[in-house]
Amino acid sequence: MTLNSSHDAGELSHSIAVYTGSFDPVTLGHLHIIERASKLFDTLVVGIGINADKKALFNPEERIELVRAISDHLPNVRVETFDGLAVEFVRSLGASVMVRGIRPLTDIAGEFTMMMANRQLDAEIETVFLMADERFAHVSSSLLKQIAILSEDDEHLAKFVPRPIIASLRAKLSAQAF
């Protein structure tokens, strides 16, 4: 786990929020949630979850670099990786708020279940849901991969991923094809 500080005990800060996810790859929808959440909290930590059981497109270091590249205009945002439970990561940062982005309404059931489990694990951690903008509600990593594979037009991808991500996404998918 990559952490700048540890706060396993003591008072949690309401001014620190943590937005967790795999960010594989980071999308315009993720960026939109990052930008909105960064306006609501003094500090926003983007927590890139590392799940050894999932085959990720980008390794953790690449995901950190990509998220940093698209969020460097936000001085109160930092990017870290974690493994294990998200609520434990949030607590370790001294934060009391977990930010979750909701895309289509079908996300709500799964997110509600996760929020209730997290509340059982740590009642002091609150979850704040931010609805995805309608422009990004349908964007998923599988959709991005399909568009990248089927179209060579970067303008198509630019509707779904930040421009600095396009070259990395194409290179990664091209390398996997061989």
What features would you describe in this structure?
The chain is α/β, with parallel strands linked by helices and 178 residues long. Helix content is 43%, strand content 20%. The chain contains seven helices and five strands. It has a five-stranded parallel β-sheet, sandwiched between helices. Strand 2, helix 2 and strand 3 (77-82) form a beta-alpha-beta unit. It starts with 12 loop residues before the first strand and ends with a helix.
Give the overall average pLDDT. 90
Give the proportion of residues in helices: 40-55%
Radius of gyration over alpha carbons? 16 Å
Structural class: alpha/beta
Report the major sheet.
5 strands, parallel
Distance between the termini: 32 Å
> What's the helix count?
7
Beta strands, count: 5
Strand order of the largest sheet: 3-2-1-4-5
Beta content comes to 15-25%
> Which of globular, elongated, flat, extended, rod-shaped describes the shape?
globular
Poorly predicted ranges:
1-7
What sequence of helices (H) and strands (E) makes up the elements? EHEHEHEHEHHH
